[in-house]
Amino acid sequence: MGGFHIRAMDLATHESPQTMNHANPSFVGGVVDGQAPLSGRRGLVVGVANQDSIAWGCAQALHRRGAGLVVSCLNERARAYVAPLADDLGVPLLCCDVEQPGQLDALVAQAVSHLGGLDFVVHSIAWAPREDLHGRVVDSHAEGFARAMNISCHSFAQLARLCEPHLGHGGTLVTMSYIGAEEAVPHYGLMGPVKSALESLVRYMALELGPRGIRVHAVSPGPMPTRAASGLVEFDALMARSAALAPLRRGVTLDEVGGCVAFLVGPDATGMTGQTLYVDAGTHAVR
C-alpha cells in the first residue's frame, strides 16, 4: 500500500521495563506470583510493522504473560523486518493486507488453524494517503477519506465478524485509537475523524457482541516515536508538549501499552466493555 501508516505511537521514557517492574515485586517477566495470567489463552495480533510498533509491544506483553499467539504484518516486504521478531518469540507470522479481497478471511482461518481457536484479537492497523493526511480535512479527497476509513476503522468490524464464530464466551477484541479522536489535535488531520468513528464502532460492537460475552475496547496511547509517526508534521513538538502536559511528566512505553491490553484480554477485566482506555501518562485528563 502506498501512502502513510499510522499506528498507535510510543514516546520512550528514561524508565526501562526492568525499572518499572521494581514497583511491583510480584511481577517478574510477565509472571505474577509464580503464575502466567494468560496461560491457555490464544490470540491474534494484527499489524506488526517493526520492533517499535504498538502491535509488537502488545505481542511481547501478551507472550510474557503466557498467551499463545499468531501475529501478522502487511506484506512480504514487511516480513523482512518482522520475521526475526516473531522468530524470537517462537510465534507464527502471517501476512495480511486488509484492502486485498480474501486476505483477512485467510488470516483468521490460518490463525484459528494454528491456535485451535481464539480468545482475543488485537487490531493495530491504520492508514491514510499522505496528501490527505498532511492537508486540511476540508480539502481531503473522497477516495482518500474512504480508504482511510476502510483500512483504519471498518477493518475492525470485518475482523470481528470473521472472529466471532471462533471466540468463546469471554472473548475480547481490542483496537488502537488516539486522543485526536476526541479533540482536534493540530496536524493529526484526517485521522482524527477516522479514529472518532473507530471509537464509536467500539461502542456499537460492544452492544452487539455483549450478549455472546464478547468484550470490545479501544486503547488510546500517548504519542510514541515510531517510524510511522515520523510522517506527521511537527511530531517531535507534539511529543514534547504531551510529555510536558502529562501529570506524570513523561510519555509511556510500549510495555505499558501492552500491559493494558494484556489486562483487558485477561481474567480481571471481564466486567468491562465498550470503553476507550487512555495510556498516556494522564495527558487526556488535563488538556
Question: What does this entry look like structurally?
Answer:
A 7-stranded parallel beta sheet has the order 6-5-4-7-9-10-11, sandwiched between helices. Strands 1-8 form a two-stranded antiparallel ribbon. α7 links the parallel β9 (167-176) and β10 (215-221). It has one domain: Rossmann fold (3-Layer(aba) Sandwich), CATH 3.40.50. The two termini are 35 Å apart. 40% of the residues lie in helices and 17% in strands. The chain has helices spanning 17-21, 54-64, 76-89, 103-115, 130-134, 142-163, 191-209, 235-245, 254-265, 283-286; strands at residues 4-5, 27-28, 31-32, 42-46, 68-73, 93-95, 118-123, 127-128, 167-176, 215-221, 275-279.
SSE order and pairing:
Layout (H helix, E strand, L loop, with lengths): L3 E2 L11 H5 L5 E2 L2 E2 L9 E5 L7 H11 L3 E6 L2 H14 L3 E3 L7 H13 L2 E6 L3 E2 L1 H5 L7 H22 L3 E10 L14 H19 L5 E7 L13 H11 L8 H12 L9 E5 L3 H4 L1
Parallel strand pairs: 4-5, 4-7, 5-6, 7-9, 9-10, 10-11
Antiparallel strand pairs: 1-8, 2-3
Helix pairs in contact: 2-9, 6-7
